[in-house]
Amino acid sequence: MIQNLQLRFAIIIAVLLVGVFLVWPSIGPVPAFWSKYLPDSPIRLGLDLKGGLYLVLEVQSDKAVEAVVDQTVLEAASLMKEERIKYSDVIRKSDVSLAIYFKDAEQASLFDQKILEKLSNFKKISGEPTDRGFEVILSMDPKNVESIKHKAVRQSVDTIRNRVDAFGVAEPDVVIQGADRIVVQLPGLKEDVNRAIDIIKRTARLEFKLVDEKGDLEGALKGDVPQGSEVLYKVDRNPNSGAVTRTPYLIKKQILLTGDVLTDARVIPDKTGRMIIGMDFNRAGASQFERITGEHIRERLAIVLDNRVYSAPVIKDRISGGSAVIEGLFSPEEAHDLALVLRAGSLPAPVKILENRTIGPSLGEDSIRSGRNAILLGMLLIVVGMAVYYKWSGVVADIALTMNLLLIFAVMVSPGLRATLTLPGLAGVALTIGMAIDANILIFERIREELRMGKSPRAALENGYAKAFSTIFDSNLTTILSALPLIQFGTGPIKGFAVTLCIGLIVSMFTALFVTRAIFDYFLVVKRVKTLSV
Amino acid sequence: MQLIPPNTKIDFMGKRRYAYTFTALMIFLSFLSYPVKGPVMLGIDFTGGLMVQVQFKKPVDTEQIRQALEAVSPNLTVQKFSLGSEDYVLRMEAPEESAELFAKRLVELLDAKFGKGSVEVRGLEMVGPKVGKDLQESAIWATVIALAMLLVYMSFRFTFSMGLGAIFCLIHDLIIIYGFFVWTGKEFNLTILAAMLTVVGYDINDTIVVCDRIRENLRSMRKRPLIEVLNESVNQTLSRTILTSGFTLLVVISLLIFGTNVLRDFAWALTIGIIFGTYSTIFVASPLILFIDKYLPVKRG
Questions:
Q1: Distance from CA of A474 to the nearest CA of B (A)
Q2: Which of B99, B120, B251 sits opposite A356 (nearest CB)?
Q3: Which end of chain B is more exposed for a tag (fewer CB within 10 A), N or C?
């Protein structure tokens, strides 16, 4: 019995030590030797306690599919020109299909032979004469549609991760939620929230396109846009007066080069002190750029970002070396942010903000203070109450309860779990204190009953623990059962609450049963105490 | 110290008609809230919308704030966050533009009215209507799944009649909390949902302790009628029921004292839940088990 008791106390002390080691860094300064051997990271605070930004974005992945169809429309047109197939029009028919109008069925079958297999994403679904000519409809396989959408979401996550890394937040979190949502959490974000959101949600699609020199801009503005071209605007805001001027351009839809080939983008002030952005291309991009500029000398090359023209300089000569600049009337912040998103890459589809929670740091501090005070007061009331009601036994329960509180935080900071403490989580801790004491109340009430029946202290203790066990087990398990759906369905803070509640209950099984029992046995067996103070 | 004297024999089961009446009355009052006060006020978590929390450097009143912002948001509601502070919560429909830009405009208008630098945005929450709908759905699922799991577990560990009795107790408590929120006009948001599920967890605890005793006594008092076994079991666990509820209430009350707005509503839901949970454990669960026993007799021995 004595040896067995020594072992039990060894376990308790070991657990206690581990708990203290884990929790200490969250409370006070850590000595140097400590961080060498042990995790010294303090408890991870949720957004609601630390302040920061929480965003739910929806990736408009339909747009990524549309972009692929648009791209194929252009590709089909240029392939047919190469093969000299006579067609009158190529258009996007729906989100996932396109239609080509041929002069006759013969030209259509020529297309089937020479071009169709090159448009690998598409299948021919119909071909019949109409009043616009012989119409062939190509449609994308639903499987391909899904994979494009899926890829768009995954790529968006990667890009956004790259972008938020630049904010210097300690633990940024960017994850996919469901099919097409992305949750972005930036606890402790110091920068201007507005600016951060702009950077995150910017599509940043950079394209090099030619200006349609032959087309009639005036006519296009009236609605008669030449086939294969579109009207895009250059928007200039005078940084001093704030006046906005919009200049229209007739731009060919064909994309010659995209921002995917960028290896770097940075802000460089030019001679007059204006901000311009210098970009470097990778090897493939550099040779493409050299070819493009060589083929189109004396034409204008438009630099288009998110469907806005930034500049359209005349190509004077073939440009080698693989670099280009974006000019515009940027403020230093705008230029810095633009270079940042260009470096991080573009989003394959636009994103929409579905949910936005911004918590200022001062609000978080208030919450921590109120949560801590509530826990301390609740704890104090219970500790005093138990000692008054159950005398020395109550004190034993109080020791277990204090250990419970310590261990909840220890489990939360333990390297394997790294749970996040939220405001509802603090409420969960407070509540667990109340529920953990229930186990001891059940045991003590049983012991009192057994003592009234005339049992000896040792027998009463034995029976009290034995009979209360199944009740305690059942009641804790059912509480955990009811908290599980919250972990499954709940968002950040609520999940935090359910997690702390579950941890607290599991820990209380150890402290309220194992720890108190060891203390009682010590007094009854070793100290040979004859009466139970309960 | 002894709150409930040993060998207390209160005839709870004999008084069950009063309990039925009181229970029916409470449920009726909860449902009456709907025709009188309308549906419960759902928070933006569930409806979608924009909520901005601002702090003023000097005392202002809600009407002044409303006037200052009338132009941009006619459906604005202004609520003082807590007594003794100049924190206010502004609620409105989610704007078309970015929420942050919108908040900036609000601050400009407030600055214009109350003087520059007089107001600080402390927090902002924007939930799109789609997300709100999704959350409503998952909230209902979370509750239904929790109740279903408990019913299965109770039937497995105890008897089906005890499971049904326990689940009815839970639904009874949830209805009353719901009624309380409608009558007081408090906002029902995700945190309150968490509180309700906590009450479910806490309450099932209470009921299980009694059921556990019933199960034990059914074995040791084979000759006695069920009604006496039930009475005896409730009496034997009465001291524990009252004590645990009391201690848990102490903690919840400290949340009421120190909590900020969100925590305080959470604590209110728990307070009501614990009080009525304790009531239903004593006065609703056992009579129900007796009632169900007429149709689904508990196997004895």
A1: 7
A2: B99
A3: C
